[in-house]
Design a protein that fits this description.
The protein has helices at about 25-30, 60-65, 75-85, 110-125, 145, 175-185; strands at about 5, 15, 35-40, 45-50, 100-105, 125, 130-135, 150-155, 165-175, 190-200. With about 210 residues, the chain is an alpha/beta fold. The protein has one domain (about 35-200): Rossmann fold. It binds zinc ion.
């Protein structure tokens, strides 16, 4: 076991451990796993945790601690759980190889890239930071509705046809508008799924958003 000194992502307890969660927080999180599947346009979106406002205080702590973490190490244990849960009942044999994992662009450093690198390492897939946000009017000037009209463009030449499976990854999904924009920017690859850590629902919505 490769133990190192880490600060727990949730409770901030320091210790020597293999991952970035203490045993207590890792156990608590494991018990909260409840994979959610949503369909957005022709995309299947899988999330590991359903997160409703105010119900699980460890979720905002976790998401905040992972913001801007573009290195895969703090994401690794979570990526292992995602792969376990999202490929149950058939395993990765159902996902055709070769696979490429594409992070949704975000702040710099991009934490979705950290998650993509961790998922890529777990499943043995390539990782391509393939998308760039299209600069539009300032976020402050946009209304809430406009803010959802996010757009991306390919960083270079489109490569998705080199792969049999494209996995788009992000930490939190809300409306799915961002995932849809990433899918379109990748030129709608044929065999594509979105893998997220959290499915964030508005207050009062308990079921998966469809
Ligand atoms: Zn902890």
């Amino acid at each position: 076991m490769n133990q190192k000194f880490t600060i727990c992502l949730i409770c901030k307890l320091p210790g020597f451990r293999e991952h970035h969660l203490c045993r207590h927080c890792a156990l608590e999180l494991r018990l909260l796993q409840s994979p959610v599947v949503r369909s957005i346009e022709e995309l299947v979106v899988r999330s590991l945790f359903p997160w409703q406002a105010g119900d699980k205080m460890c979720f905002p702590d976790l998401v905040y601690a992972l913001k801007g973490r573009a290195d895969p190490h703090p994401w690794f244990e979570l990526a292992v759980w995602m792969v376990d849960q999202f490929t149950m009942g058939g395993g990765l044999t159902l996902i055709r190889r070769p696979i490429v994992v594409v992070p949704i662009p975000g702040s710099a450093p991009n934490h979705a890239l950290g998650l993509a690198r961790a998922v890529g390492r777990v499943i043995g897939a390539d990782v391509e930071d393939a998308l760039l946000p299209v600069k539009k009017r300032s976020q402050k000037a946009l209304s809430r509705g406009d803010r959802q009209a996010v757009e991306f463009r390919p960083r270079g030449e489109l490569f998705c046809t080199d792969y049999k499976t494209v996995l788009i990854v992000d930490d939190v999904i809300t409306t799915g508008a961002t995932a849809g924009a990433a899918f379109r920017a990748l030129n709608r690859p044929e065999n594509c799924e979105v893998w997220c850590l959290m499915d964030r629902r508005p207050c009062g919505v308990h079921d998966a958003l469809l």
